[in-house]
Amino acid sequence: MYKRIYVLLTCFWIVSATAADISSVSASEASAVAIGNAPDSKQLETDLQQLTWKQFKSVVEAVPKLKADVDAYGEFGWQYVQMNYKTYKWKKSIDKLDDEQKHQLTRLIRSAQQAQ
Hints:
mainly alpha
């Protein structure tokens, strides 16, 4: 119950933080959100791989399932990811996310890209 409330509050915070710059949302992304379709996993993978390490790590840590995938490898998980995140096949992990989590990932990636 508390986890759902936390996720909901986080989503509201992310939406309010990105609402000011709504003009940067592409037409295809806006239509996908309006229709309720999940963003393309392959495109999300490409976008993730194009981030700097610092941006990448902050995005992955904000998505619990992706963070758990890295944490599952223990102490050396983040070191391995840092060396290979630009070539690692993240699509499998992204495919495991539900639509809401994929939308959250999209918003986080866009925020990180705009912060450059």
